[in-house]
Amino acid sequence: MRSWKTLKITQSEPFITTISMNRPERRNAISMEMVRELEECFAELASARDIRALILTGEGSAFSSGADLKERASFDPENTRRQRETGLRVVEQMETFPAPVIGMIHGPAIAGGFELALACDIRVASEKAVFALTEVRNVGSFPGLGGPVRLPKLVGRGRAAYIVLTGRRICAEDAFNFGLVDVLVPHGRLKDETLSIARDIASASPAGVSAAKKLIRQSNDLDIYSATALSRALRDPLDRTKDYAEGLRAWLEKRTPQFTGQ
Questions:
Q1: How far apart are CA 123 and CA 61, in angstroms?
Q2: For residue range 48-70, what is the model confidence (pLDDT) as tens digits?
Q3: Does 115 participate in catalysis according to the annotation?
Q4: Cβ pair 65, 28 in contact under 8 A
């Protein structure tokens, strides 16, 4: 694994890898260098066969405060567009990553940081987490990494409009009640709970998990008949895998299955 300037990559446990945004002195503000490294990192990890769950978090007190506006102020419109296009590729990489991506959100997730959290498959937050999309209010634009598209699918159109159009901060409890956060835990339990979820995923069939992730993501935009057809197309091949046979044997033998990803 190569070294990174703005990221820290660790293998938390077998089959579980953590990406930490690593600019704590800037509250993990997303610089041009960071967004490029995120794109390269997700591309590199996507080909790794030993990752069954991927955790995304931030070093220091914040998950991410969004784009580095100090750097952004020096950009011309073309550089701003290039950074945004790279960020859009990153959130698409997260959504199409073979393994589930779990957001471990321990502090503020603001603007682009919020949008990275939205692209995760599961969001686990501590009671100290805070969420806001501040672009309309602060920089005269709107969230550019797909936040206004993804957010209504999670919380409904009205609440999404409230979050996007006011720029107000949403506390962790409200985020959980809105459906933005999937698991809310006391701050001191965040890492343990996130790893517990990752372990459950990592112990399951990699092919089954990957196919289920794809179905959950893609069926959201399909009518019921197209979604059922996609389900059939993804499900049928799994019946012929070694993992499926192992699962049946383990059930008959009353033991825990040992899935290999084959």
A1: 17
A2: 889 999 999 999 999 999 999 99
A3: yes
A4: yes
Q: Considering 39, 59, 95, 135, which one is annotated as catalytic? A: 135
pLDDT exceeds 70 at position 72: yes
φ, ψ dihedrals at 202, nearest 5°:
-65, -25
**Which amino acid is residue 247, in one-letter code?**
G
CATH number for position 247: 1.10.12
Same domain, 152 and 43: yes
Amino acid letter at 123?
Answer: R
Other beta carbons within 10 Å of 228: 12
CA angle, 151 then 229 then 213, to 5°: 45
For the full predicted model, state whether its pTM sits above 0.85.
Answer: yes
Q: What is the pLDDT of residues 89-101, one digit of tens each?
A: 999 999 999 999 9
d(CA 111, CA 140): 13
Angle at 65 between CA 59 and CA 69, to 5 degrees: 125
Catalytic residue from among 44, 59, 71, 115: 115
Q: Do 104 and 55 form a contact (C-beta atoms < 8 A)?
A: yes
pLDDT digit string, tens, across residues 171-200: 999 999 999 999 999 999 999 999 999 999
Mean pLDDT calculated for residue range 34-44: 97
Q: In the annotation, is 44 catalytic?
A: no
Among residues 63, 74, 83, the alpha carbon closest in space to that of 23 is found at 63
CA distance 26 to 214: 34
Range of the domain at 29: 7-202
The count of domains in the chain is: 2
